[in-house]
Amino acid sequence: MIAILSTRWIVLDIEGTLTPTEQIHTVLYDYARPRLGPWIDEHPDDPEVAEAVGQIRRLGELPDSADTAALVTVLHGWMDADEKITPLKTLQGLIWQHGYAEGELTTALFPDVAPALAQWRKAGIDLAIFSSGSVAAQIASFSRTSDGDVTEFFSRHFDTVNAGPKREAASYQSITEALGADPAEVLFLSDVPAELDAAAEAGWQTVGVARAGEPYGDADFGPHRKIGSFDGIRAGVRRRPSASSPGSSDEGAEPVSVGELRAAGRALAAEAARYAAMGWMHGTSGNLSVVLRRDPLRLAVTASGRDKGELTEDDVVVVDESGRGAADSPCPERVPSAEAGLHARIAAVSGAGAVVHVHALAPVVAAELWPDGVVLRDLEMLKGLGRAAHDDVVTVPVIRNDQDMRVLGDAFEAGFDAGTPALIVARHGLYVWGDDPRQARHRLECLEWSLRFAVETRQTVTPQVSQVSQAPQSGQTPPTDQTGQTGQTGQAPQTDRSNQTSQNDQPGQSDQTGRNDQTGRTRKPGQAGQAGKPTTRTKNRQGR
Fold first, then answer.
1. 395 and 424 in contact (C-beta within 8 Å)?
2. Rounded to the nearest 10 degrees, how much is the dihedral formed by the CA atoms of 419, 425, 427, 428?
3. DSSP state letter for 313
4. pLDDT 10s digit of each residue in the chain, 544 long?
5. In the chain, helix, strand, coil percent, each to 5?
């Protein structure tokens, strides 16, 4: 087992790291080799093919009159030498993309790969690929694998065209800039020591992947840590420094300028207008924030008592890590929203760059129905939260409302799960966060839809009740519904259910998917756990 430093990004190599080398050198190479010539001839007007042909002639020192056979001879020579040449990778990628689309190719992943990808994403870590294969080939290869379509796990893709050679530090520096990350926030996994050397030179964390039977399985990885499989990694989200971090200080910190605050104000005003138009910010309710500084923590938060549909660039306040107006604010006379303290706690704990709080109805109703946490699964919209549409369970935490933001902050932190960027405050509203206001909005829109679906289908879809929990005892009559008919597992709903409740209305029987809730207890309507404590049973501390 390796103790990995916390990270915000994991960048992965493919060959020998995610897939056996044989997958590339035998399956894919053998598929592409006889198709290179025909592909060139059949796609003369394709800009990518035309550019690749020009590069082959130049790199292969061929005359402009060289025919397809001469081009193929050069390409086969590069393949035999396992050269990572851009025009070769471009043509191979186009051919492989076609093969996957036609169902003629499937990528074999090592058995530990898919579970690890899912675990890292659930922990809130973003994943990217850096491979010599083209971006098009990467995406195609992950669309059909031995574990199904895994493209949803990856946020970014890099190749030798958009990043550079894999054994040069400048390529990794370029990727760092594209990710908008600090070098120390990026972890690189590869089976090639020279690639790890280049990544380390760029300031990345590195781990060598030495899989048994692979070409680099017995390689000397020098100063790099080494694992035999992904089971040897435990990674969590890197928490960026905040004002509450040991050693942090306001001394020497650059103060927020009036221009910077106004720019943040314009961005938040535009977002607030959208939410108000959706009916999610009634009157002066709701608030938004964006992080301006990490150390010490400074946020721009919408001001108190403002109509969210009419905000201007001046309706924001700079607050500190406690949610109070910051002493170094350029506009100290402004009063922040009363909930700024929870915004600051969420930003400090999760590393979020923006937090949104709305009063949409569906989340509040969902919390009323499932006070121990709202379980969502098998919904395409969950991809908008960075989660899988299938074989993944998202539990949105629910905490009891309180007027003390410190109490709410403690309850939030106690139940924090880095894989779920959302929190429902019972009988109050919904908080969602992201790297920036735009990502937070996208997550909020997808989550609100999912919660609304859960609430509305609860009354119209008969749950698949387990026979164990619903089977009558010996000598008892099977339960009947409100129409007097005997209930059956999976029975279709009656035509008029307008004044009925489904069999899973009582907490302790079944949740919205027909599964038992997390406690098995019966709660009174509106009960949402003890004050100051999260009612959700999920207390995943990954990412902390």
1. no
2. -110
3. T
4. 354 556 889 999 999 999 999 988 889 999 999 999 999 999 999 999 999 999 999 999 999 999 999 999 999 999 999 888 989 989 998 999 899 989 999 999 999 999 999 988 887 889 999 998 889 889 999 999 999 999 999 999 999 989 999 999 999 999 999 999 889 889 999 999 999 999 999 999 899 999 999 999 999 999 898 999 998 776 666 544 443 333 334 445 578 888 889 999 999 999 999 999 999 998 889 999 999 998 889 999 998 888 988 999 999 999 998 898 888 788 877 888 889 999 999 998 888 999 999 999 999 999 999 999 999 999 999 999 988 888 889 999 999 999 989 899 989 988 888 889 999 999 999 999 999 999 999 999 999 999 999 999 985 444 443 333 333 333 444 333 333 333 333 333 333 433 333 333 433 333 433 333 433 333 433 444 444 444 433 333 333 3
5. 35, 15, 50
Nearby residues of 191 by Cβ (< 8 Å), 6 or more positions away: 13, 15, 16, 17, 208, 209, 210, 211, 214, 215, 216, 217, 219
CB-CB neighbours of 490 under 10 Å: 9
CA nearest to 424, candidates 536, 268, 508: 536
Distance CA 522, CA 507 (A): 5
Burial 434-468 (b: 16+ CB within 10 A, else e): bbebebbbebbbbbbebbbbbbeebeebbbebeee
Q: Report CA torsion sign: 236, 242, 248, 252.
A: positive
CB 93 within 8 A of CB 47: no
Say how far residue 16 (Cα) sits from the centre of its chain: 25
**Closest listed residue to residue 217, CA positions, set 11, 1, 21:** 21
Task: Give the number of residues written for the chain.
Answer: 544
Locus of tokens 């292969």: 60
Among residues 282, 305, 262, 302, which one has the least CA distance to residue 428?
282
SS3 per-residue string spanning 107-126: ECCCCCHHHHHHHHHHCCCE
Q: Which two tokens stand for residue 168?
A: 């040069």
Local structure of 247: helix, strand or coil: coil
d(Cα 271, Cα 274) in Å, to the nearest integer?
Answer: 5
Residue-by-residue DSSP string for 132-161: SS-HHHHHHHHHSBTTB--GGG-SEEE-TT
Residues 6+ apart with CB under 8 A from 188: 10, 11, 12, 13, 130, 172, 195, 196, 199, 204, 205, 206, 207
Helices 361-369 and 437-458: crossing angle, nearest 10°?
50
Q: Who's near 316: CB < 8 A, 6+ residues apart? A: 261, 264, 265, 268, 300, 301, 302, 303, 334
Residues 265 and 306: their CA atoms lie apart, in Å, by 13
User: Cα 437 from chain centroid?
Assistant: 15
Question: What 3-state DSSP class applies to 295?
Answer: coil
**DSSP output for 34-98:** GGHHHHHHH-TT-HHHHHHHHHHHHHTT--TT--HHHHHHHHHHHHHTT---HHHHHHHHHHHHH
